[in-house]
Specification:
single chain, about 550 residues, alpha+beta, 9-stranded antiparallel sheet, 3-stranded antiparallel sheet, 19 strands, globular
């Protein structure tokens, strides 16, 4: 069978499709939607240039060059379009327009999710600019949100599809949205800057609790197929993504320590100011930010986009750790009930059900009673080597992709699992011992940096980090926030603290208590997996091959 070609990705083989627990059918739909999104953006390159001039206050005759799609960068949720302003690369300014991909942000299933994600990300920039100026982040020049007033441009009609992702590809019109736009006040006329300055003074005098940003409303008549951020381009000859040199340089003690010092300072700076509840910051149209959004993390967005029913509504915040853990546990339950490739046999289904029941039952071992109602601390939940820029000595020069910062329980403060270059479920045996040694080195540096700081909560974060490792709580929190590693993390790290390895008969008994009618749930999940497998075979033409063999 021939592999399936993908947009800017290696071809997908049938064997690869069988090995993954991702929903390959959805992944291929996302791939088509991404290709379409690229084409839509490139057709609007003149609009992109106009938006840049709009936010920077440039004249129509000022050069603004949008680089071609082959030079664009893409992550899990955004496409980054490089742009030059000025007459040439040497004298000009390089920018990034970071455009959210609606088909990767559950927009078709839950309209308004793109807006939610972008408002949380923008609010994070504002908070860090105002409260954590020591953290090096890109300059944010301006941004635009959807205002959901559509301007419909005709396109050839096509038949409707029941799939939300397919609807993005086959809709009968292309919806270009007008935007709610904001620009940093330094790029606005002097009289607007004065008004904004006095607004700051008045709010400070009256003691308003909300934080007023330095961004002011700046509407235009432009329409664009994406919400966006206009950012400083941070890559240079002296600043490169950590991922480029991580595998070669992580054995270098001096580089590693420089990196750990920088990461520790970032974590401590964010956690310095205690927060009253669990949630994410949200940017409002009056230019203020408040901690009033649900805790928006990468895992939640990935699973919702893939079809897991939403458990946390946009305005849900949490006053206690228990309620947050309960909803996250229920969210993982919903993934098992909705994802057709989450299990592949009766034993795997029973095992997943049993572990989810045990995770919920063991939660009280890892929730610190004295801090169950706070204070909660700001944490970067997606701090990885692709989001950190460093110089040649691994001093951190920039931190990018700030979209998943939340106020969370202090027990969730933890060094990243990737410190030794392995996946979370690869930390076992000698690799676990290697990770422990590097983690201990990080914690020692973290303690050194914590002694220098002046946090406003009086909590020893170093002590908490050490306790979560000693108690095994680190694996509980990793499991709760992972996409699909809960089963392996429980069996590798949590189960041995309480029992010998669970046998199938143990899992079969325990799984009955996960939900009423567990036997029927298993049958339904196996039926869904069988149907999914048939659809994957059809994608690769395998079903036709089978029929020919029978003949």
């Amino acid at each position: 069978m021939d592999p399936i070609q993908r947009f800017q990705r290696p071809p997908l083989t049938y064997d690869d499709a069988l090995k993954t627990d991702s929903n390959i059918i959805h992944e291929l739909q996302y791939d088509k939607a991404t290709h379409k999104f690229y084409n839509d953006l490139w057709r609007e390159k003149d609009t992109i240039a106009a938006l840049v001039r709009h936010h920077l206050g440039l004249r129509e005759r000022d050069a603004c060059i949008v680089e071609p799609p082959k030079l664009w960068m893409r992550g899990a949720f955004n496409v980054c379009v490089p742009i030059w302003t000025g007459s040439d690369a040497a004298s000009g300014r390089k920018l990034i327009m970071r455009c959210a991909m609606p088909h990767k942000l559950a927009e078709a299933r839950y309209p308004g999710t793109v807006d939610e994600k972008m408002r949380c990300e923008t609010a994070t920039y504002v908070w860090m600019q105002e409260r954590c100026p020591d953290i090096p982040i890109p300059q944010l020049y301006g941004f635009g949100f959807y205002n959901h007033r559509h301007v419909s441009l005709p396109s050839p009609p096509s038949p409707p599809s029941p799939s939300p992702v397919s609807q993005l590809l086959t809709c009968s019109c292309i919806n270009w949205l007008s935007l709610v736009q904001f620009t940093h006040h330094t790029h606005r006329p002097w009289y607007i800057r004065i008004v904004h300055y006095f607004r700051h003074l008045l709010r400070d005098f009256l003691g308003y609790p909300t934080l007023l940003s330095h961004y002011v409303a700046h509407p235009s008549s432009l329409h664009f197929p994406s919400a966006y951020l206009l950012l400083e381009h941070v890559r240079s000859d002296t600043s490169r993504m950590l991922a480029v040199s991580f595998n070669q340089g992580r054995e270098d003690s001096a580089r590693r320590q420089n990196l750990f010092h920088g990461m520790a300072r970032i974590m401590l700076s964010l956690a310095r100011i205690p927060q009253p509840h669990i949630g994410s910051f949200r940017f409002h149209d009056d230019s203020t930010i408040t901690l009033t959004n649900r805790p928006l993390v990468c895992t939640t967005m990935l699973l919702e986009n893939d079809g897991t029913p939403r458990m946390m509504q946009k305005d849900d915040i949490y006053l206690s750790t228990e309620s947050y853990v309960a909803d996250m546990s229920a969210f993982h339950d919903q993934r098992l009930l909705s994802h057709p490739n989450a299990i592949f046999s009766e034993s795997s289904c029973r095992g997943e059900m049993a572990i989810k029941m045990l995770i919920r039952g063991l939660a009280h071992h890892y929730i610190e009673r004295q801090r169950r109602n706070g204070p909660f601390l700001l944490q970067m939940t997606d701090l990885h080597i692709g989001n950190i820029f460093v110089d040649d000595e691994w001093n951190i020069t920039r931190l990018i992709d700030l979209e998943w910062m939340c106020a969370l329980p202090a027990e969730m403060m933890e060094p990243p699992y990737w410190l030794t270059g392995r996946a979370i479920d690869g930390l076992k045996g000698e690799h676990l011992e290697e990770f422990k040694q590097v983690r201990d080195e990080f914690v020692g540096i973290f303690e050194e940096e914590e002694r220098k700081g002046t946090a406003q909560h009086g909590i020893s974060l170093t002590q908490i980090i050490r306790h979560t490792w000693d108690s095994g709580g680190v694996w509980f929190w990793y499991a709760l926030t992972s996409i699909n590693a809960m089963y392996s993390l429980f069996n590798q790290h949590m189960c041995p603290r309480f029992s010998s390895a669970l046998l199938f008969r143990d899992e079969e008994v325990l799984s009955r208590f996960w939900a009423e009618g567990s036997a029927e749930i298993v049958k339904e999940r196996l039926r869904a997996h069988g149907q999914y497998s048939d659809e994957v075979e059809k994608l690769f033409g395998r079903g036709q091959e089978k029929q020919e063999e029978i003949r």
